[in-house]
Amino acid sequence: MIGVTGPVLAAQQFFRGMREEQLAALAAGASAVVFPAGHRIFEDGGHAGSFWLIRSGHVVLDADMPGDVPAVVDSIGIGELIGWSWLLPPYRWAFGAVCVTEVEAIQFGAAAVRSACAADPALGYELTRRMLRVMARRLRSARTRLAVRPANVTGPY
What we know:
By secondary structure, the protein is α+β, with helices and mostly antiparallel strands. It has one domain: Sandwich (Jelly Rolls), CATH 2.60.120.10. The protein contains four helices and eight strands, in the order ααββββββββαα. It has helices at 6-10, 20-28, 110-119, 121-147; strands spanning 30-35, 40-42, 50-56, 59-63, 71-76, 81-82, 96-99, 103-109. A four-stranded antiparallel β-sheet has the order 1-8-3-6. Strands 2-7-4-5 form a four-stranded antiparallel β-sheet. Helix 3 (110-119) crosses helix 4. The longest helix is centred in the C-terminal third of the chain and has 27 residues, at 121-147. 29% of the residues are buried. Residues 152-157 have low confidence and may be disordered.
């Protein structure tokens, strides 16, 4: 297992180009974690206290569907981030996340990252800009997946 340092983060596509002091601030609130296959990382509606960068493995995001099994919203793999609901109050997950395989990830404590962003507005801007790209991709993916759901699915959508 790796230690989480600024240089470790700099090697990840999501963080490429960020300043050393910004990466060091993010690394200070980060830790390496491993989740087994089948582990639910977070539940739709639960408290969003962390986010993760996937180093190995595969995760699916799902959404609760009234009267149905959760719908797969997106598939997340190596180098991708999961979790953006920690950015804005009330800090509740908009989806759920389940490990399809064993997953090695870097976990970031949301409160520590929000504090680092408050102390360095340039870090806050840069991280928010990058997170917005993730959110836009996820929304496009969700729209595509929901557009191909069978016509016999009931519900308000």
